Amino acid sequence: MAEIVTMPRLSDTMEEGVVATWIKKIGDKVSEGDILAEIETDKTTMEFESFHEGTLLHIGVAEGEGAPVDSLLCIIGEEGEDISALLQKGTAEKAVETPAIVETPVAVEKEAVDMLEEIDIVTMPRLSDTMEEGTVASWIKKVGDTVEEGDILAEIETDKATMEFESFYTGTLLHIGIQEGESAKVDSVLAIIGPAGTDVAPILKQVAQGESAEAALKTETPKTEAVSHAVEEEKPVVQASGGRILASPLAKKIAKDKGIDLSTVKGSGEHGRIIKRDIESYKPAATSQTSAVPVQSFVPAGESGESVKNSPMRKTIAKRLAESKFTAPHYYLTVEMDMEHAMASRKKINDLPDIKVSFNDMIVKACAMALRKHPQVNSTWNNDTTEIHKDIHVGVAVAVDDGLVVPVLKHTDHMSLTQIGSTVRDLAGKARGKKIQPAEMEGSTFTVSNLGMFGIVEFTSIINQPNSAILSVGAIIEKPVVKNGQIVVGNTMKVTLACDHRTVDGATGAQFLQTLKAFVENPVNMLA
What we know:
Strand content: 25-35%
Radius of gyration: 27 Å
CATH superfamily of the largest domain: Chloramphenicol acetyltransferase-like domain
Structural class: alpha+beta
CATH architecture of the largest domain: 2-Layer Sandwich
Number of helices: 13
Distance between the termini: 56 Å
Strand order of the largest sheet: 17-26-25-24-20-23
Number of strands: 26
């Protein structure tokens, strides 16, 4: 017998939860104790286990969406079991939005009613807690394509990252409501999925007149037409040159890692789409040096250049950094560190099997331990009060294609060097592969930005509010240094701490850097 699984209360103050990730998909077998999903509460993200056995028949809350405690989360039962009564019960209790039940006049043909009930309107999802609108970076599916549940429909740019958006429905992509490069508010019509040949024009007309997607489905009856017409009218034309490049997300990631220009790769997938095997078997053609190096021409004053549309991420970065720079009184403190012991310690650690620790990992660990000794730096300005955070969550700035994201290492002071290293690599990989979740970028109390790998010796950063400080890490350089009255060759590194003077006084910032320097220059102290 089918069982309704409701949104659990995972904390004493939790009123609603957000599904971060579904571990099980519709049709999957579920055993008691299996992880169903990862649920974001008001405090943390937790794995949610099943207390039932059977098949996952229905998902009531899509990934990235929230629902009140005790509302319908999913239904588990026997494969093929009729759950319509349970769905109607969930709708009556306003537990979850389910596909609209159509009230249709008796005169309407049964085939049209059945087709209408199978139509699903996909809206612009809310992929982060601060997202108000999204931009379609690229459509993976095109009008006329068959869509399976779990297929990637499109890549959506939010105010924080570019993320892949999966379909929760099966059918044919009948309509694309937001074209590539265009932006729209959350809950705007993104696409329509349903039976091939369905006429969606009446539904779109109702939506255009201000009705909700659900109301449009209730008031309009579809009419069937030849599917070829819909495809001809809506199918985007991909030009051999100058058009967008069709490639799977995995192929894009592998190509980026290998430094392969996708425009030089011939795709073997559907419609010439570039897939994994095309990248793995790619052999670059010989090119002359002159063709490989782009020539930048001088544009005289008064002549037009190229205008590039700012992405939601770029606009958010600009807004937040400007707010931080002009609201928080920044000041900067720089120290130079002797890296001899750190270099020797890292070499010994990395000589161990299956262990890899970077200098950045050592810096992050040292920051967490220094914050424990200087909690005033681990704070937030709240106008009337200053919040001294008990937990230490270090954010690590990661460069992505269109800007910067800051994955957060929760409870960094309790993590070992190897745990920090593996977590940073995992989160950075997710960020660059557009797989990172909003919860993984929230809650930082301090931030580290490292440009040393680019050969930058010294720089300053803008504070990542609501943090009170950010550490800028430069490159390790070999230079003459004085030791015991003698000039010898040494290896040093400069770090600069940007502080919010409202919360961190100069002496406090200087003491923090002294402690940080002691940890970095003598890494054995971090193991005590």
